[in-house]
């Protein structure tokens, strides 16, 4: 065979090798699938003598598997433009059209005149373009068809049927390319989603090496710790973020031990220096060398919830102290009934020049001071008897002006700022004065060198957003009383204990520590709450919130006066405290009454006169062993229906009624709060007995 003949015989083989090499070279380049495949199809068409080449790709849409055009190549673009547009609009499913038939067949499909095939979806357009012979080669990877290569030639062309193996080989190359491209796209999409989740996470994320070098953070972390930029946050070593280095060491020890650490509460240092509480969930991740070397922590700011937890704890503690204070006050009231009562009786019997009189007077004064302290304890524990009425808070505050002027001194300026049209509130007028005076005295002590105190009143509306940040607050309309000073302010530690009874920063003997506790209890008892705003060196502001009421002001009532004379009626006294019982019996006995005594409720029933004999009044403690005072009263009313009852207790009437201890019957009953003076006891007894006499007197 001559050389020219040999050269002619090698030409088809050369084209095939050149095609495979050229396509392989293109398929390893970077770029989009559309661009790469368009260039690869151009090589296939030119080298293998095809006029129109198409690459189809499997693209699932919903529950259906469809093929769409990835790229096309046209030898004469103007001639086959309509065919390209038509192909790009097609969605091919298995078994539909020539492509669908080859898809279902799962093998190359060669047709002598594809344009005349009845199921060729583009037959009219192909025929108009003068195209005829064609072949469809499935693109297969791991046994799954993921696309199709389609080639068409002009009717007058004669493509080499023997080139089918090279077309199959090219389809294999394309399959590997599309598979790599799909995996790369999936990886890029996954990385994008992960990056988006990382950056959009509302929790802070901080990733660092175990030796403390930050390698990745998200915007939420930067914002949480107040860094000006991500670069500045990345420059800070993780060890410098911890307020307490032992917390970091404990975290790292747990990570090295188990690979994870959940719900750890830590204090981190913000860019500006202040600390915040966070909850961190951390995992140990492999570093670049594959060994566990990265700590990724997801961080949630808990500063607000920690503050809420602290406030709840403080309120709970105050409630507990309040219950204790109420119990102490109850016992004190029994003792003070005896101390103050007997001192009053002695003073009434001693002449002005009696040498024993000064000592008894000092006993009475000490008892009165103790009674005042007890009232403050009861105010804090919300057990102080109150007479809430609808009042003008501005007038109640102004009524204290004279006392304020004398208490504050000349070096403290007191100013008022009252908003117009203040709403009314329901509170005890006397207690409002007590509140203002206690706050004023607190301000005075905070300004030993002088200063200014401002008392303000305004109407405010509290919404749910405010309540989320102030746990005692409740939505609604309030009148706000603010008392602020320019004094020394309080430390955070002092602020935490400010409302606790007996807590004081004054020296020994200079204060009882009940002033602010009394304010707290009075405002709480009025349906409101108290807030403190203070800073060392910058003064203190107390904000007191009283619920608004849409009611007219209460009329001013004249004070009722009772006559404290004696009588001769029969009175049964039931009291388990022996000193109190003896005091009551002494006062009533000296006033001429016939007294029957009982040490508890059960004995009262034994000592009571039988039916038919006279019993005018029962004087009884509310809470006694074996039988309570109300239980004794209910039994006596069965036997002596006309008998009156005077209940006594160291607890307030409001508290006793709230607990449901008193009988529902109202007529012929009265309540006496301990401690009480002899004349008050006599006046209350006489009032009850005179009321009974009027009720049973015959009509004229």
Structural description of this entry:
Helix 1 runs parallel beside helix 6, helix 10 runs antiparallel to helix 11 and helix 10 packs across helix 18. This protein has 22 helices and 22 strands. The protein is 45% helix and 23% strand. A hairpin with a 5-residue loop joins strand 16 and strand 17. The termini are far apart.
Summarize the structure.
This protein is of the alpha+beta class and 700 residues long. It contains 22 helices and 22 strands.
Topology, pairings included?
Blueprint: H1 3-27, H2 33-48, E1 52-58, E2 67-74, H3 77-89, H4 97-105, E3 109-111, H5 123-128, E4 131-141, E5 144-154, H6 164-200, E6 204-209, E7 214-217, H7 219-224, H8 230-234, H9 245-258, E8 260-269, E9 275-286, E10 292-301, H10 303-349, H11 357-380, E11 389-391, H12 393-398, H13 401-408, E12 412-418, E13 424-427, H14 429-446, E14 451-462, H15 464-469, E15 476-485, H16 492-497, H17 515-525, E16 529-534, E17 540-549, E18 570-574, H18 578-590, E19 594-598, H19 601-607, E20 617-621, H20 629-639, E21 644-649, H21 653-658, E22 669-673, H22 678-696
Parallel strand pairs: 12-14, 18-19, 18-20, 20-21, 21-22
Antiparallel strand pairs: 1-2, 1-5, 3-4, 4-5, 6-7, 6-10, 8-9, 9-10, 11-13, 13-17, 14-15, 15-17, 16-17
């Amino acid at each position: 065979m001559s050389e020219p003949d040999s050269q002619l015989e090698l030409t088809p083989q050369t084209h095939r090798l050149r095609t495979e090499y050229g396509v392989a070279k293109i398929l390893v380049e970077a770029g989009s699938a559309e661009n790469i495949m368009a260039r690869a199809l151009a090589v296939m068409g030119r080298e293998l003598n095809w006029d129109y080449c198409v690459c189809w790709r499997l693209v699932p849409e919903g529950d259906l598997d469809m093929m769409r055009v990835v790229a096309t190549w046209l030898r004469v673009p103007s001639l086959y433009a309509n065919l390209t547009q038509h192909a790009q609009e097609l969605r091919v499913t298995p078994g539909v059209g020539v492509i669908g038939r080859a898809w279902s067949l799962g093998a190359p499909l060669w047709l002598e005149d594809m344009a005349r095939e009845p199921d060729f979806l583009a037959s009219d357009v192909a025929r108009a373009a003068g195209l005829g012979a064609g072949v469809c080669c499935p693109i297969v990877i791991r046994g799954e068809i993921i696309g199709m290569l389609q080639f068409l030639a002009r009717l007058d062309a004669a493509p080499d049927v023997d080139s089918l193996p090279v077309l199959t080989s090219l389809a294999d190359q394309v399959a590997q390319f599309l598979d790599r491209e799909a995996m790369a796209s999936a990886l890029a999409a996954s990385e994008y989603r992960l990056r988006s989740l990382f950056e959009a996470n509302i929790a802070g994320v901080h990733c660092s090496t175990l030796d403390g070098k930050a390698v990745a953070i998200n915007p939420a972390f930067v914002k949480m710790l107040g860094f000006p930029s991500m670069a500045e946050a990345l420059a800070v070593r993780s060890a410098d973020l911890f307020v307490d280095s032992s917390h970091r060491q404990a975290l790292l020890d747990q990570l090295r031990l188990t690979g994870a650490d959940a719900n750890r509460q830590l204090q981190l240092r913000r860019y500006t220096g202040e600390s915040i509480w966070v909850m961190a969930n951390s995992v140990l991740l492999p570093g670049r060398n594959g060994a566990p070397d990265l700590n990724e922590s997801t961080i949630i700011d808990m500063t607000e919830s920690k503050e809420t937890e602290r406030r709840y704890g403080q309120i709970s503690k105050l409630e507990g102290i309040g219950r204790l204070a109420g119990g102490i006050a109850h016992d004190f009231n029994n003792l003070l009934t005896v101390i103050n009562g007997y001192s009053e009786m002695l003073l009434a019997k001693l002449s002005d020049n009696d040498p024993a009189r000064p000592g008894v007077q000092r006993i009475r004064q000490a008892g009165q001071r103790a009674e005042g302290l007890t009232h403050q304890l009861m105010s804090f524990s919300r057990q102080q008897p109150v007479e809430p009425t609808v009042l003008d808070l501005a007038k109640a505050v102004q009524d204290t002006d004279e006392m304020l002027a004398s208490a504050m001194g000349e070096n403290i300026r007191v100013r008022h700022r009252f908003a117009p049209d203040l709403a009314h509130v329901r509170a005890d007028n006397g207690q409002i004065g007590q509140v203002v005076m206690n706050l004023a005295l607190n301000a005075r002590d905070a300004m030993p060198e002088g200063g200014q105190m401002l008392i303000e009143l305004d109407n405010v509306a509290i919404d749910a957003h405010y309540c989320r940040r102030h746990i005692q607050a409740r939505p609604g309309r309030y009148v706000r009383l603010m008392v602020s000073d320019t004094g020394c302010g309080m430390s955070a530690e002092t602020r935490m204990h400010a409302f606790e009874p007996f807590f004081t920063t004054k020296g020994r003997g200079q204060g009882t520590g009940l002033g602010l506790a009394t304010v707290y209890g009075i405002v709480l008892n009025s349906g409101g709450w108290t807030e403190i705003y203070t800073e060392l060196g910058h003064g203190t502001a107390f904000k007191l919130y009283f619920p608004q009421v849409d009611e007219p002001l209460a009329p001013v009532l004249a004070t009722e006066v009772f006559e404290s004379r004696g009588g001769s009626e029969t009175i049964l006294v039931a009291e388990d405290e022996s000193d109190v019982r003896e005091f009551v019996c002494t006062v009533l006995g000296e006033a001429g009454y016939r007294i029957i005594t009982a040490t508890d409720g059960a004995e009262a029933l034994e000592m009571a006169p039988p039916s038919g004999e006279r019993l005018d009044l029962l004087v009884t403690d509310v809470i006694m062993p074996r039988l309570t005072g109300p239980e004794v009263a209910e039994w006596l009313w069965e036997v002596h229906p006309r008998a009156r009852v005077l209940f006594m207790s160291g607890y307030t009437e409001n508290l006793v009624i709230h607990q449901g201890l008193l009988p529902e019957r109202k007529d012929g009953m009265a309540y006496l709060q301990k401690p009480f003076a002899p004349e008050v006891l006599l006046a209350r007894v006489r009032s009850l007995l005179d009321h009974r006499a009027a009720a049973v007197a015959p009509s004229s």
